[in-house]
Amino acid sequence: MTTINFQAYSSILFDLDGTILNSEPLHMKSLQLLLKNAKIACSMRELSSRYHGLDDTAVLEDLNKRYPSLMMNQETFVNIKNTLYINELESMEDIELEHLITPGFRSFFKKIIPNHKVGVVSASEKDVVYATLNRLNICNELSVVEFRKNEVSSKPSPLPYLNTIKHLQDRPPTTLIFEDSKAGLQAAHSSGSSVVQISCFTAVDQETPHITDFKSL
Question: Rounded CA gap, 73 and 8, in Å?
Answer without folding.
Answer: 46
